[in-house]
Amino acid sequence: MPTAPGGPRLLLRRLREIMAEPVGAQDRLDKIVILIAANMVAEVCSVYVMRGDGVLELFATEGLNREAVHLTTMRAGEGLVGLIASTAEPLALSDAQSHPSFSYKPETGEEIYHAFLGVPLLRAGNTLGVLVVQNRTYRVYTEEEIEALQTTAMVLAEMLASGELQALAPVDTGIALRRPVHQKGVALADGVGLGYVVLHEPRVVVKNLIAENVEAELSRLEEAILEVRTSIDELIERGDVAHHGEHREVLETFRMFAHDQGWLRRMREAVASGLTAEAAVERVQSDNRARMMRQTDPYLRERLHDLDDLANRLLHRLVGRNLVVGTSSLPDNAILVARSMGPAALLDYDRSRLRGLVLEEGGPTSHIAIVARALGIPAVGEMENVTALTEQGDAIIVDGAAGEVQIRPSPDVEAAYAEKARLRAKRQEQYLKLRDVPAVTKDGVAVNLQLNAGLLVDLPHLAETGASGVGLFRTELQFMIAERMPSASEQQALYSAVFAAAEERPVTFRTLDIGGDKILPYMQAVEEENPALGWRAIRIGLDRPGLLRAQVRALLKAAGGRPLKIMFPMVATCDEFVRARSLVERERAHLSHHGHPLPSDLKLGVMLEVPSLLFQLKEICALADFVSIGSNDLMQFLFAIDRENRRVADRFDPLSAPMLRALKMVADEALASGCQATICGEIGGRPLEAMALIGLGFRSLSMSPAAIGPVKAMLLELHAGGVADLIAQELEHAGGGETLRPKLLRFAESHGIPV
Ligand code: PEP
Ligand code: MG
């Protein structure tokens, strides 16, 4: 069996010399294939580059007919080259022609070659092309040879990424690295943003690929592995892992991987073949990413993600750069791209330069989504592999309504979105004109439109939208974005600032709704099988009254002589409300005793989110000053669907008869007892749903700022009586769980109501 003269190390050294020569791109590539063929003792070496249209084109060859260069092409999946590109795995065959995927290209003259070894040109997990060597004999390629060719492929991939070969590609397609990508995820925050990628955690760019001294690189790698292992051990041992936002379980997995012999061996082998320590980490990481992109099992994907994180840690150690993007380097039209991100990190960026946010993780009810909505930043989540698909500075478009991104869009796509953004801006202008128009239906029914808020940055929306007040202030957001538990005086300072910003408009504060999916990073997490049904919200408040008492006191003090409205989340029984109310009463008495100014009027309400309250309606309406329906949770518990779980979250329609009947019970009881009922869940902010709610008898809705304009535009064209009749009739006849949506849509269309 022939052995490579000089082996991979010599090959890499010669490659480095060729890379530095002042020659044109085609000449350089031609020299490279000659070099590889000679080094691998192969008769053929060819480079296929993936063009922007996904077609693989022969860019250079030693051994095949030269005339085939830039002529021979393969579609993705076609032939052995196409197979390698689509699987992103090496392929070694002693007889290529007997492989079922072999596709004969007569112009290449390859019929005389039998043995075939091809490897993908991978960069950050993306396939940029395929590198092939062939031999006349029926030979078997060794593991070492496959490894050596992969290492060489990495150097070639970097050459491709540098853009040097761009000029050799057809002008209309370019090469794949710059290919436009259209991808769907989930909508997090409405709006269209056009701009340029800013990676929240920029990848370490490995510039130095080829080792000067292999022994020295091996010890650099070993040192870095040891340091990363030690730092993980320390984090676990210190036990304050929650403080770092890293759960113990994740760190334990990290520790396991950091000792994974297969992974370590692959990196060591890559160094032994002549790469620097960082290039070796990146090579193995790139293979992993390619596997991650093709992995459909969510558990295995998650593990590959962990491995990717670990490789990043190693790269940071080896290259040792500070990777935080300062606001100074933030472009004017920045679109933040991240795997995941906390709300506090988002708030650190200069809002005025942010045009969008794209996350690999993050569902619609995640905290980051809530903050993005509050800041009015178009955002999409669950965008698979977006951090691998994009490069710093790439053009990108975020469509927050459709939950889509366009990466490196073509000019016509960009023009279409620019038009969409212009139209949106025009619509916003029209909504702005409605700001001071009273929210009254065509038949004279006044509807109170309020805002949902949770941060101080939400408050300017009151004046912008003309909302009459804040119907739901989610106090937990202050806790969720803080590094540590906000002190009583910090809480009071926020509430005072909210009162000041709201001016004369009323604000309804909800006490801490933590637990479930709302986790405070600095609080010891409680392991629960079903956190949504676990120790959360008012349950924590009543069991740990110190926390609730401090918050209530801060609210009472901040209100000073103004009216104050407080409501309690996740109340399941009247008794819970009574206990919470007496806690407030005791605090009020305490402050009064010490001469503090008290709220001029104090109203205590209950959130209706747990279905058990539907069967205590008369009693709870008699006890509480107002009821606010948290339809997000009510839907979750009524239909037993996890609101965070995309598989089931949209399975049932809030406009279906069972939900509408539940809501009607509340509207009827509120009317009968004179207890005000508001809706503060997401459904109140969707025009068609809001129309139905008005039809059920609700006269107060609280919603996200962006929803006020569309809901007001809807109700200005609505006859409340008409939709009330329709719903009453339909509910009477609806046999099972069917949805009234089509009928309501038809009603809206036939009456010219914009929904
Ligand atoms: C709800 O459940 O509808 C609600 C308004 O509360 P949150 O979304 O904060 O749980
Ligand atoms: Mg809720």
From TrEMBL:
<dbReference type="GO" id="GO:0005737">
    <property type="term" value="C:cytoplasm"/>
</dbReference>
<keyword id="KW-0808">Transferase</keyword>
<dbReference type="InterPro" id="IPR029016">
    <property type="entry name" value="GAF-like_dom_sf"/>
</dbReference>
<keyword id="KW-0418">Kinase</keyword>
<dbReference type="InterPro" id="IPR015813">
    <property type="entry name" value="Pyrv/PenolPyrv_kinase-like_dom"/>
</dbReference>
<dbReference type="InterPro" id="IPR036618">
    <property type="entry name" value="PtsI_HPr-bd_sf"/>
</dbReference>
<dbReference type="InterPro" id="IPR008731">
    <property type="entry name" value="PTS_EIN"/>
</dbReference>
<dbReference type="InterPro" id="IPR003018">
    <property type="entry name" value="GAF"/>
</dbReference>
<comment type="similarity">
    <text>Belongs to the PEP-utilizing enzyme family.</text>
</comment>
<dbReference type="Pfam" id="PF00391">
    <property type="entry name" value="PEP-utilizers"/>
</dbReference>
<dbReference type="Pfam" id="PF05524">
    <property type="entry name" value="PEP-utilisers_N"/>
</dbReference>
<dbReference type="InterPro" id="IPR036637">
    <property type="entry name" value="Phosphohistidine_dom_sf"/>
</dbReference>
<keyword id="KW-0175">Coiled coil</keyword>
<keyword id="KW-0479">Metal-binding</keyword>
<keyword id="KW-0762">Sugar transport</keyword>
<dbReference type="InterPro" id="IPR040442">
    <property type="entry name" value="Pyrv_kinase-like_dom_sf"/>
</dbReference>
<dbReference type="InterPro" id="IPR000121">
    <property type="entry name" value="PEP_util_C"/>
</dbReference>
<dbReference type="GO" id="GO:0009401">
    <property type="term" value="P:phosphoenolpyruvate-dependent sugar phosphotransferase system"/>
</dbReference>
<dbReference type="Pfam" id="PF01590">
    <property type="entry name" value="GAF"/>
</dbReference>
<dbReference type="InterPro" id="IPR006318">
    <property type="entry name" value="PTS_EI-like"/>
</dbReference>
<dbReference type="InterPro" id="IPR008279">
    <property type="entry name" value="PEP-util_enz_mobile_dom"/>
</dbReference>
<feature type="coiled-coil region">
    <location>
        <begin position="211"/>
        <end position="238"/>
    </location>
</feature>
<feature type="domain" description="GAF">
    <location>
        <begin position="24"/>
        <end position="170"/>
    </location>
</feature>
<keyword id="KW-0813">Transport</keyword>
<dbReference type="GO" id="GO:0008965">
    <property type="term" value="F:phosphoenolpyruvate-protein phosphotransferase activity"/>
</dbReference>
<dbReference type="GO" id="GO:0046872">
    <property type="term" value="F:metal ion binding"/>
</dbReference>
<keyword id="KW-0598">Phosphotransferase system</keyword>
<dbReference type="InterPro" id="IPR050499">
    <property type="entry name" value="PEP-utilizing_PTS_enzyme"/>
</dbReference>
<keyword id="KW-0963">Cytoplasm</keyword>
<keyword id="KW-0460">Magnesium</keyword>
<dbReference type="GO" id="GO:0016301">
    <property type="term" value="F:kinase activity"/>
</dbReference>
<dbReference type="Pfam" id="PF02896">
    <property type="entry name" value="PEP-utilizers_C"/>
</dbReference>
<protein>
    <recommendedName>
        <fullName>phosphoenolpyruvate--protein phosphotransferase</fullName>
        <ecNumber>2.7.3.9</ecNumber>
    </recommendedName>
</protein>
<dbReference type="InterPro" id="IPR023151">
    <property type="entry name" value="PEP_util_CS"/>
</dbReference>
